[in-house]
Write a structure and sequence with these properties.
The longest helix is centred in the middle third of the chain and has 83 residues. With 248 residues, the protein is mainly alpha-helical. 74% of the residues lie in helices and 3% in strands. The relative contact order is 0.14. A three-stranded mixed sheet has the order 1-3-2. The protein binds zinc ion. Zinc ion binds next to loops.
Length: 248
């Protein structure tokens, strides 16, 4: 293969590595943010349960006050019962006591409901906390992987950038210019191999037979007439020899 063509192929490999590495590095902040968003999702479930618990406790305190009020009223009426003089007063007081007792009963019913609700909330809280702990572990591991990936991608970017510079030094300036010009309009890919049946592997246009023949020689810089990429040829691997079966 012509050394210039070989260098162009290498240049493309390094160029592609550089582009991929830059894209990965650029996506890093978003991937971190996505991980944090997933963690925050679990945190907000825990917060919602905490808010329910707070509501429940506040309601409990209010109900406990009501219970104290009704109990106080009941005690007062019972004390007054011993002081009444007439049957009519006695009946009126009995009526007051019955009302206070029924009010107290209703509030106690509500206290019971809130206690049952508190049990449900406690179970939900346990579940949410456990889910958060699992998620936290996942996200920690994910961030560690991301950081490792970033380090390795940065290293490969440095290596590819150095290698690219070394290749460019040995490449004819007109070929560098050609490469860059085609790469700019072809999403960073300026080189394409020809397929075995004579197509440009990237734009899929059929090469003219004379062009295909030239490309297969790998001796010159030939551009695809359709996408302008520099074409090269990868000879098919030699056929695998049939395994020889030995009979004893
Ligand atoms: Zn093409």
């Amino acid at each position: 293969m012509s050394p210039q063509l070989e260098r162009l192929i290498k240049l493309q490999q390094f160029e592609s590595t550089i582009l991929d590495a830059r894209a990965t590095i650029a996506s890093y902040p978003q991937r971190l943010a996505d991980a944090d968003a997933r963690l925050n999702e679990s945190k907000s479930v825990v917060d919602a349960v905490k808010a329910r618990l707070k509501d429940n406790q506040e309601a409990r305190r209010a109900l406990d006050k009501d219970v104290a009020v009704y109990q106080g009223r009941l005690t007062k009426f019972k004390d007054q019962l011993s002081l009444v003089k007439t049957n009519k007063e006695y009946q009126a007081m009995q009526h007051e006591i019955a009302t206070a007792q029924s009010d107290l009963g209703a509030v106690e019913e509500k206290v019971l409901e809130r206690m049952l609700e508190a049990d449900t909330i406690a179970a939900d809280s346990k579940r949410a906390e456990a889910a958060l702990a699992v998620r936290q572990k996942e996200i920690d591991a994910e961030k560690k992987d991301l950081a490792q990936e970033l380090t390795s991608v940065e290293a490969s970017l440095t290596r590819a950038t150095d290698a690219r510079a070394a290749i460019v030094k040995d490449l004819e300036p007109r070929l560098i210019a050609l490469f860059e010009q085609v790469a700019r309009v072809r999403k960073g890919v300026a080189i394409s191999c020809a397929t075995r049946d004579g197509l440009c592997s990237l734009c899929h246009v059929r090469l003219r037979p004379s062009v295909f023949q030239q490309v297969r020689a790998n001796a010159e810089i030939i551009q695809c007439e359709s996408c302008q990429r520099v074409l090269y040829w990868v000879p098919p691997p030699p056929p695998i020899e049939q395994a020889v079966v030995h009979h004893p």
